[in-house]
Write a structure and sequence with these properties.
Layout lengths: L2 E7 L8 H14 L4 E9 L1 H12 L7 E9 L4 E9 H11 L3 H16 L7 H17 L15
Helix pairs in contact: 1-4, 3-4, 4-5
């Protein structure tokens, strides 16, 4: 069985590094032993993610990332899902944290894919593990994380 992976850029604000996004996603999928399934990463604007956030999570505001798990069979290495990431939020938050919007956007993709691959951040202990993984994958992409408190960066 094959793995289908698409990155759809449906926004005009930010020139995303599609190669870097694909490379990091491939690394996460490989590290998670995911060999079959389908993943869509969709880059969207505020209006689009706001609508999805309202429709599916009942939150009336734009957000940074939303993961939609369709199917995950860890023992079989099979994953199907979609990740929506918002370029406008990335641009706004990047200024706040003092790094490039493309790096902030990649962080959202990493965070969303880690959720799909079974990571959770509902407790402080789980959140610490997830934050460490995020930093590891950013480093893999050659991105040095800013010197800020990761507890201030919330999904």
């Amino acid at each position: 069985m094959a793995f289908l992976f698409e990155i759809l850029d449906e926004q005009d604000l930010l020139k995303a590094d599609i190669v870097k996004i694909r490379t990091v996603c491939d690394k996460i999928l490989d590290d998670s032993h995911i060999r079959s399934g389908k993943l869509n990463v969709v880059l969207v604007d505020n209006d689009t993610i706001h609508q999805y956030n309202a429709d599916f999570l009942h939150h009336d505001y734009p957000t940074d990332v939303i993961s939609f798990p369709v199917e995950y069979r860890q023992s079989e290495g099979h994953l199907e899902g979609e990740i929506l990431v918002c370029s406008e939020v990335a641009c706004e938050r990047a200024k706040e944290f003092g790094w490039q919007p493309q790096d902030e956007l990649l962080l959202y993709v990493i965070h969303g894919l880690l959720h799909l691959a079974g990571f959770d951040d509902k407790t402080e202990a789980l959140q610490a593990v997830m934050r460490q993984k995020e930093r590891e994958y950013l480093a893999f992409a050659g991105i040095e994380t800013p010197n800020w408190n990761w507890d201030d960066w919330e999904q």
